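TASK: fixed-backbone design
INPUT:
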């Protein structure tokens, strides 16, 4: 490029596409070694195809910068990126040459340097250097501007990995994106960013350290004050946003019943495509699946229940290798039909149909789509229709429809998804669904499935590094593995491409509550509920949060609303209403509600624990024994910390009856079984909780206190604000049972004021605290807990 023609004091600004590079460790080389490195680098750079093409066209300026060089391209934004990849490829033959590169497009202008030579300078070059400064050897880093330009082309998106903001010279923040492929670039997090994140994490840990001292108590009280100001608002009670929509299940018009899965897949893909648009509010699949097609479907009532203004409904008919899809968009407030279309196509065009429908609906709702969102809508999930059918069959299985057969349902989902992946090993969304199912198995069946979940999520991200669903499932894995920091990082990435995904908000809320961010947890659970209002799992988690925060009135309101969505007798609702009564100090009312729950209702240990708790609060020890005797053997051990008649609960009943000899005999037998069951296995905090209270029961004071403290050391409140209070409350119980009332009360004074601590009902009626009753300090704690229950 002829710079001299433009180099004057008033030279016009141009947009230059800058590749800035330097040699890592250059300053440590001897002078002759520096010259050799510069010559070698120059030769490599000049041999690249895009350097030569730009230079031949007069669209390139090369600037020496001491330990590297800057290349300014004036032909294409892609030119410096392509050149960087060519340099990286050539460097494979020169492992001794450690190079880092930064790329930015920005303003440059012609200047005359001190030697009266024509040159270029400007903010574009300075910014490229700052971007490069964020990297280590092997990194090819891009500014956000360059990455946004490249993201409009589908071939670049898998190679772009956002790193966030990096602080450079003078504290200036630069948003950088890492470019790498399977064989080129450096996929590792740059040292600067890694150090910054470690410092941030350390600062957060320091800020969150709690449970000792006045300052900690003050912080807890402030947190309580903040979250107590929040009030629940029902999404259905607010005006529905104009750009809100629910895609209802499509009707299957095919003769073959198995095509119902295919019809469901069409509806699901349209919903998924719309959900990628940040300018829309789109209700999640779980909620809309409650409304199957039929003449009784009242669109206005459905829209009101889901909190939306618009609904989409349609039908699918498949015959051989042809498919007919009909869809219509309806304003549910006025029943006005805003758009309708019929598509008669070859079966292989079904994904194109789905993309066109989503685009048409977005246009009718006047939604703004970014280039990345348009590209995402147009992308095919797989090229194998049979693989897609297997995937949709797996998605159609709701494992909790039959809680007794949940494990079998999960296994069937795994089988279908593995078949889909076998047909199309590049089916990234199938890997994501498999990762979720393996996580479910790890949480509910066997923890060994957790590593299978990680492998599936990693496989999805190897295929599509920018896939939001992949990052969401990796976040789910990290959450299940208790690595909350990494889980949150993955959720942030997933959120960028999945703005309407309720699962992202639900997982984020679960992390928030465990990291003592109760206000954030409440907001995220409410957002998840807004996007998925008929999802029983989301509702359950929101209700559980209200219980943990002692927001009993809101909990009761949610239960009442949820019960209205489940006409007829609902044992779950009865059980949870009973739990409210117990927490608020009404064991008689709880017992009455529990009497209405069928005795064969036994999906989890929770119902049996609740029945025993109600009986113990009422000092009905015969009734508690009858509950234990009626409990199915397969859940009794988990429900009562040991297999009856030698369980923790059996020992409690004997202790509360005043039969000290029997209590000690039962506790000793339970302790022996507990210790033998672990053997040489790693002992977690739950083990030490159970061991400590059994030791307290048999009178081994020093051992009990030591092991209770060990449990709290392994699970401090600062690490997990949900599980930590359980370990801390257990320590208080051990103190109370071993003749240390002052230490017990000191613990309870704090615990009664924070989420997940003992409830008023527990403090008031649980016989475990009987040794503290009559102490004015304990009575004051109970009175304060009662006043705080609302």
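OUTPUT:
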């Amino acid at each position: 490029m002829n710079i001299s023609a433009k180099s004057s004091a008033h030279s016009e600004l141009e947009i230059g596409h800058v590749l800035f590079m330097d040699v890592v460790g250059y300053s440590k080389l001897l002078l002759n070694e520096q010259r050799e490195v510069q010559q070698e680098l120059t030769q490599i750079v000049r041999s690249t195809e895009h350097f030569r093409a730009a230079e031949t066209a007069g669209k390139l300026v090369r600037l020496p910068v001491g330990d590297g060089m800057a290349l300014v391209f004036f032909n294409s934004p892609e030119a410096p990126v392509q050149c960087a990849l060519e340099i990286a490829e050539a460097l494979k033959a020169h492992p001794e040459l450690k190079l880092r590169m930064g790329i930015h497009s920005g303003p440059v202008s012609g200047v005359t340097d001190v030697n009266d030579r024509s040159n270029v300078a400007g903010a574009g070059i300075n910014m490229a250097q700052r971007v490069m400064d964020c990297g280590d050897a092997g990194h090819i880093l891009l500014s956000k501007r360059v990455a946004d330009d490249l993201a409009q082309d589908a071939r670049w998106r898998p190679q772009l990995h956002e790193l966030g903001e990096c602080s450079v010279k003078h504290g200036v923040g630069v948003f950088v994106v890492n470019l790498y492929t399977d064989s080129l670039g450096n996929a590792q997090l740059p040292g600067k960013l890694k150090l910054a994140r470690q410092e941030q994490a350390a600062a957060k840990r320091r800020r969150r350290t709690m449970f000792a001292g006045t300052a900690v108590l003050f912080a807890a009280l402030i947190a309580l004050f903040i979250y107590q100001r929040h009030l629940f608002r029902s999404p259905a009670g607010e005006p529905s946003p104009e750009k809100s929509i629910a895609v209802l299940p499509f009707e299957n018009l095919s003769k073959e019943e198995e095509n119902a899965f295919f019809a469901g897949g069409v509806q699901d893909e349209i919903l998924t495509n719309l959900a990628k648009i940040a300018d829309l509010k789109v209700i999640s699949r779980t909620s809309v699946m409650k409304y199957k097609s039929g003449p009784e479907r009242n669109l206005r009532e459905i829209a009101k229940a889901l909190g939306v203004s618009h609904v989409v409904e349609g039908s699918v008919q498949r015959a051989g290798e042809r498919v007919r899809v009909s869809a219509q968009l309806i304003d549910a407030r006025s029943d006005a039909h805003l758009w309708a279309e019929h598509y008669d196509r070859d079966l292989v065009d079904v994904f194109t149909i789905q993309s066109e429908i989503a685009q048409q609906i977005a246009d009718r709702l006047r939604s703004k789509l970014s280039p990345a969102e348009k590209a995402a809508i147009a992308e095919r999930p797989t090229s194998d229709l049979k693989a897609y059918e297997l995937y949709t069959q797996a998605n159609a299985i709701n494992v909790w429809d039959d809680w007794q057969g949940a494990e079998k349902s999960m296994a069937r989902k795994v089988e279908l998804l593995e078949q889909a992946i076998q047909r199309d090993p590049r089916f990234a969304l199938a890997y994501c669904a498999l990762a979720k199912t393996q996580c479910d198995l790890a949480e509910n069946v066997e923890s060994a499935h957790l590593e299978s979940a990680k492998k599936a999520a990693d496989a999805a991200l190897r295929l599509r590094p920018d896939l939001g669903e992949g990052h969401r499932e990796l976040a789910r894995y990290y959450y299940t593995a208790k690595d909350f920091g990494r889980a949150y990082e993955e959720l942030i990435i997933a959120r960028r491409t999945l703005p309407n995904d309720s699962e992202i908000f639900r997982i984020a809320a679960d992390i928030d509550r465990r990291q003592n961010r109760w206000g954030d947890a409440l907001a995220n659970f409410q957002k998840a509920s807004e996007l998925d209002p008929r999802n029983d799992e989301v509702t359950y988690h929101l209700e559980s949060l209200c219980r943990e925060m002692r927001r009993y009135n809101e909990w009761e309101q949610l239960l009442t609303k949820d019960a209205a969505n489940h006409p007829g007798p609902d044992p779950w609702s009865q059980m949870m209403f009973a739990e409210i009564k117990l927490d608020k100090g009404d064991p008689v009312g709880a017992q009455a509600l529990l009497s209405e729950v069928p005795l064969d209702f036994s999906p989890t240990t929770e119902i049996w624990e609740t029945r025993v708790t109600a009986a113990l609060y009422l000092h009905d020890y015969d009734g508690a024994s009858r509950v234990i005797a009626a409990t199915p053997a397969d859940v009794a051990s988990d429900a009562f910390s040991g297999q009856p008649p030698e369980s923790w609960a059996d020992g409690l009943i004997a202790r509360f009856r005043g039969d000290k000899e029997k209590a000690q005999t039962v506790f000793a037998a339970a302790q022996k079984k507990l210790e033998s069951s672990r053997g040489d296995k790693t002992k977690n905090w739950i083990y030490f909780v159970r061991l400590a209270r059994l030791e307290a029961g048999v009178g081994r004071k020093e051992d009990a206190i030591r092991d209770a403290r060990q449990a709290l050391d392994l699970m401090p409140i600062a690490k997990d604000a949900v599980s930590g209070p359980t370990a801390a409350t257990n320590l208080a119980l051990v103190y109370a049972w071993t003749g240390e009332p002052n230490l017990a009360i000191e613990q309870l004074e704090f615990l009664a004021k924070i989420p997940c601590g003992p409830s008023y009902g527990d403090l008031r009626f649980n016989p475990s605290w009987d040794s503290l009753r009559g102490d004015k300090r304990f009575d004051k704690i109970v009175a304060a807990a009662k006043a705080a229950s609302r």
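COMMENT: The longest strand covers residues 99-112.
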